[in-house]
Amino acid sequence: MAGRIPQYFIDDLLTRIDIVDVIDHRVKLKKTGRNYSACCPFHQEKTPSFSVSPDKQFYYCFGCGASGNALGFVMDFEHLDFPEAVDTLAGQLGLDVPREENALKNRGPDHTELYNLMNKAVDFYTGQLKQHNHSPRATSYLKNRGLNAATCQHFAIGFAPPGWDNLKSELATSPEKELQLINTGMLVKNEDRNTIYDRFRDRIIFPIRDSRGRYIAFGGRVLGDEKPKYLNSPESPIFHKGKELYGLWEARQANRKLNRILVVEGYMDVVALAQQGITNAVATLGTATTPDHMVRLFKVVSEVVFCFDGDDAGRRAAWRALESTLPNMQDGRQARFLFLPQGEDPDSMVQQEGAEQFNERIKTQAISLDNLLFRELESELDLTTMDGRARLAKLAQPYIVKLPEGLFHQLLLKKLSDHTGLDTHYLQAHFKETAHAKDQQRAVQAEAEKATQPTPQSAPTSSYETTYSYDHSYSEAAFQSSDYSSDYSSDYSSDRDNYFSLEQQSFPAITTRRHSTKLSSCGYAIRQLLCNPEFASEVAEPLSDLKLPNNSDSSLLIELLTVLKKNPAMKTSTLIAQWYGTDKGDRLKVLAALDHGTAAHSEEFLDTIATIRKSNVEVQSKNLHSSFLNTSLQNKKPSQLDDETRKKYLELLESKRQSLNYKKSE
What we know:
alpha+beta; 25 helices
């Protein structure tokens, strides 16, 4: 397994690469003043709102909010993960990407040997398809299914010959290798008989790749009518079938820009469609479509079309896919369902009618998620009656509440309102009230269960209970990007023209809010650092004094200061790259985009740092006071305190009076 890419190399790469060259190679840019513009590659638009700054080495779309540096653009545009994007940019400069081998110690188990074995298994199976005595049966089967040699080679299709130990004899050259093959599911160990044999025998073999193109598992298809027709690798350290999709890597390689992915049921469907020129198909691996599948798919494309048989089994599979899709239906995403004539599958249909007509079938016959949802819910209801409409609302509720908040959620509520005659606001309020009641019921049940459990013997408590509550004005338990979402003006042309022309900043104020956004002190300090990285050198040590309890922004502030103190000349785009693709990176982009001024306020920044340190001292002091009171007053009345404790207690009271500006009564 390759080690971690050193941060110094990533920083150097971003310094040497020109974001204009990177993007212009993929999206044609036009010079507009000091910057470059184009129609955004991440959403549909007619008027260019995508702007690239050569000075800042940063891009931003005023239409959809997409933003980032050169690495981020390559990741999003070509659907690559971070290491792949680094490799791509480094290749443009003719650089070899170094790896930190000692970083592997903290990266979990090393599965390099397992991946190597899977590569050897692929070579073995593809070799058997060409040279084994029984291979003519396999090649004849593939030809009868309409596959040619080029397609078989592209998908590395192979043949597992008859026999119990062909693969075992070839690859299990040591007890260690044998155990590794068992762990990957390539060999099966029968504990009762103490025998080990090949899992795949006398089957067509379909190798399965992960998102990085590594072979991780196999699917095997019988040549005759034996059962099971398809056999898949079991779960292993490198294969989790509920997350992987057959053909996704190949689809990404075949299409520089994927707009739509077609989800089919079998390996042969994917391969047959690809041979006909439909190279955007994937298949689940012997399982129903899962939410993990949908998360992965929607990271690659905004539209997913499911293709199923028109029989009862196909309808059930479509419904399970719909349920997995609902939680991922954010605005801008689309899911549709195509049902083929009974007895047909994508393999047979595309060979009958060709790619053009098959694509036309998708265009004209695939129904949207909302239409499928209501079609199935209404199938046994009489909507001409009140109880039928009430039943529809009740049946639709658990599906609608799964949807993320947004326009699609509201439109589906409106559709339910149209079908039932109930007011949209009433439906929304009723769903929330019902969900709240269920939450309360679950809480009561949890308390009841907790009450039935034996409780450990607890320490006696004081008769004089002293409680301090600390409510800090800028305490934030977690990053909440939605709290900082911006309302874009319908006319952003003037903002776009002036966006990158502002001086003395690395990130301009690019959004307009109808209401001002209140920033915490830590959030304000972070934003000032993003605009003015040089401020970090003015912050005195120790930085640990800036850590506030339950405040993620304070931790992020310390990390930013630590990085900038070591690299005071670091550009802001390089700085954000340190956390690209993480919650922290998203938080940095949100803070950078807020409209809280653009000028360099060194004094305000340092005052804010001082305020944070003061708050930290206050918190620690309150914690010490609380600890003293809880331990000293436990099970004691004031009259029972010794002189030293009484003196300390009075000192605390006096300190509290002074902090609150209270005066002693004369």
